[in-house]
Amino acid sequence: MTIDPSNELRARPAQVGRNGAARRRTGAALLLAIVAAPAAPPDAEAAHATSPPAVAPVMPSLGATSDIAPSPAPRPEDFRFVEDLERRTFTWFWDAANPRNGLIPDHYPSPDHFASIAAVGFGLTAYGIGAQRGYVTRDQAAARTLATLRFLYRAPQNAAEDGAAGYHGFYYHFLDPRRGTRFARWSELSSVDTTLLLGGVLFAQSYYDRDTPRERTIRRLADALYRRVDWSWMRAHAPLLDMGWTPAGGFLRNDWDGYSEGMLIYLLALASPTHPVPADTWQAWTATYARQWGTFQGQTLLNFAPLFGHQYSHSWVDFRGIRDAWSRAHDVDYFENSRRATYAQRTYAQANPGGWRDYGTNVWGLTACNGPGIVTLTVDGRARSFQAYSARGAGRDYVSDDGTIAPTAAGGSIAFAPEIVFPALEEMKDRYGSRIYDRYGFVDAFNPSFPSGASYWADTEQFGIDQGPILLMIENWRTGLVWATMKKNPYIRAGLARAGFSGGWLGDETRQARGDPSPGAARHM
C-alpha cells in the first residue's frame, strides 16, 4: 500500500479531549582499497578522506523512491519548532556526557545513572550535527569525539567478570560512567549496543576528514575500534549472530532472528576486513522474516511492533531506493516499510482498541520506553494493568499497550512521514507542555491514563536511545547530513553490497564490492 500524505502536514485536526472518542496505540575501487588496507597504530597519521558533505540550508523533499510521495512543504512554525527541538536534544548529549571520557548515561539528568554504550554512539553522531549547526565549534566537537574514542580504545578488553569494558571488540551494554568498566554483573556484552556505538564511531571516521592531527587521529582510532570487533566469534549459533555474552553464562540463548534493528549489526559484520561473517549470513537472516510480513492497520509491511526497530539502523543508513533480494521480491524498500509502520501506528491510535485516554490522530507513539510501574489500578471504572520499562508496540507480530506514549516513537520517524509526525509532536508539546517538554526536549514517556496526584504520569528525564533517533532523524530530514556522511564510509558501502543491496544511490558500483574483503596485512589492534 502506497501512502498519499495529501495535505496531512497542513490539515491539523481539532484536539481530542481526554475522554474523546478518537484514540490510538500502539560503499567500488576506492572502497575495496580502503577496506582491504592494513590497520596502522591508531595514533599514527591516516590518509586524508573525502570532503565533508554539503549541508543544504533548507529542508529537502524526501520523495527519493517511486513508492514515496513527496512530503508537503512545512509551515514556518514547523521550522521554528524543529530547530528548537533539535537544539534541545543536542544539548542533552552535550551536557550528559562525561567530558573526560565521553561516556553518556543511559538516562539523564537522574543522579543514579550508568553509561549506555549505545547512547555513546548516538552522542558521537550528535557532536557532528552540533558542529554543522553551530551549536558547538568543530574543534569542540572533535575534541569531545577524540576523548571518547581514545578512552574506548584504551579501556580493558578481556573475559574477566569485573574490571573490563568489553571482550573481542564488543562492549558491555552498561558501563561505570567514571571507570568505563562493566557496570554490574547483570550487564551483558551486547552485539546491538556495540553496533549502535559503531554507528557513531564510523560517522566520526567519515565526518572528521580534515588534514589536522586531531582529525587524523579520530579517523585512525575509529578504524581500529571497528576492525577489532570479532563478529565471527559472536556466531555461537551459526548462521545467525548472537545477541550477547556474559563471562559466567556464555552466549545468550537468543540470536538476531527476524526483522528488527539488527539490520546494522549484520551489515557491519559482513563488511569487516578482519573478522567478517560469511556472505550468505544476510540471506540466512532475511529468511527469518516470513512470520512478520503481512497487513496491520491497513498497511502491508514487514512488522516489528515497537517503532525503534524501524528507526535505529535508518538513523545512519539511507535505505531510500536501495533494495536487497528480499525487498525486491516484496516490491518495497526498507525506508518505505518504515514509513508504513509509522502510519500503522497512527491508525492504531485512532482506532484505540484499548480505550486509552487521549489517543488519536496527533497523540500516538509506541516503542520501548519507561512506564509508570508494574501495577493494576481502576481507571474510568475498569481495571487497568500498567508496566515499567517495556518494549511497547503495535504490529502484526504483537501488541503491547498500557496507554504509555513515547514521543521518540513519532520523533524518530520524522524522516519517514513528516506530514504526520509534525502535527503529533507539536500537539503533544502544546497539550502537555512542560510536563513532557523541557530544556532537553521531550521526556522519555508519559501516560495520560495513569493517575498521578491531580494529574497523570510523566517521566522526568530523557534516555539516550530515545534522544538519538529524534536528533539524527531530524537532521536527516532537514539536510541528510548523517546519511550523506555515512554514504562516504567504505564499511557501510561494503556491508550493503555484500548483503546484495543495489540501485538508488549505490548505483552499479556495488557489483564490484560483493566479495569478502581481504584482510591483507591488517593487524589485530
Report on the architecture of this protein:
This is Tat pathway signal protein. Residues 255-490 form the Glycoamylase-like domain. Residues 1-22 are annotated as: Disordered. Pfam families: Glycoamylase. It comes from Gluconacetobacter azotocaptans. With 525 residues, this protein is of the alpha+beta class. Among the domains are: 94-256, Glycoside hydrolase 144 (GH144) (Glycosyltransferase); 292-478, Alpha/alpha barrel (Glycosyltransferase). It contains 16 helices and 21 strands. The strands form nine sheets. The chain has a five-stranded antiparallel β-sheet. The protein has a two-stranded antiparallel sheet with strand order 1-21. Strands 2-5 form a two-stranded antiparallel sheet. Helix 3 packs parallel to helix 5 (191-207). The longest helix is centred in the first third of the chain and has 21 residues, at 76-96. The radius of gyration is 22 Å and the shape is globular.
Beta percentage is: 5-15%
Number of strands: 21
- The radius of gyration computed from the alpha-carbon positions, rounded to a whole number of angstroms, is 22 Å
Could you report the average pLDDT, rounded to the nearest whole number? 87
Q: Judging from the principal axes of the Cα atoms, what is the shape?
A: globular
Spatial arrangement of strands, main beta sheet: 3-4-6-7-8
Largest sheet, if any? 5 strands, antiparallel
Q: CATH class of the domain at 292-478, please?
A: Mainly Alpha
Distance between the termini: 48 Å
CATH superfamily of the domain at 292-478: Glycoside hydrolase 144 (GH144)
Q: Helix/strand-derived class?
A: alpha+beta
Enter the CATH topology name of the domain at 292-478.
Glycosyltransferase
Tally of helical runs: 16
Low-confidence stretches: 1-68, 510-525
Region (Disordered): 1-22
Pfam families: Glycoamylase
InterPro entries: Glycoamylase-like_cons_dom, UCP028431
Protein name: Tat pathway signal protein
